[in-house]
Fold these 2 entries.
Entry 1:
Amino acid sequence: MKPLYIVNAKVVDNLSVLLYFNDNTRQVVDIGSYIHNHPHSQYNKYLNPRQFAKFKIENGNIVWGEDWDLIFPIEELHRGCIDEPNETTLTAMKDAEEGRTYKDANSVKELMNYLKQ
């Protein structure tokens, strides 16, 4: 099975994005609701539509901020449902607050190897 990744995205509503995946599916995800329901100093700034629109597609995922301030598991984005933060997400948030950057090296490495094929 091929790894799942995002190939493109665009803002479709105030704080929602339309995601295009490599399996030719599309999904609208309401990121704003997640931020409203889980306020945090690391990503509250993305409630501002101008800041929200500054996302990037990096290593097959949609990210906000230079140090990936806001990022979600691909599988959840693909389902269109962002669940509660898991242990990895909570660790990433703590690291960011303490000035350490966080990137999931294993998934990035897997994606890069796939793209080289």
Entry 2:
Amino acid sequence: MGKSIVELTTPDGLVQSLRNEDEALMKTHTIKPQHQFLDLEAARMKPLNLEVLEFENLEPDFHKYCDRHALTVKLPHLNVSAPHDYLTELSAAFRDYLYGYYIQDFDRFGYLS
């Protein structure tokens, strides 16, 4: 295992911490491939009445979800930041590593590499 302090000063630093299996980073749920959460529920033999909402279409997908389930809930906008293309800050080698790390998510959720 790597160090217990995650260096996240740059996107490449994040990927390097991921590659080193940094203890602090690996304990966070946000870095784990998302298919692992679905697989975990399936392994517990719980029924998966699941609808996946894509972040890229979150607001319209959320409204459709609420309509289907007769919910009147507002989607809050928290931690809003200016749009930013983080992929431009990653080296090609680290982009390739991330794609390999999350390949099952890319395949399962229909994202392009």
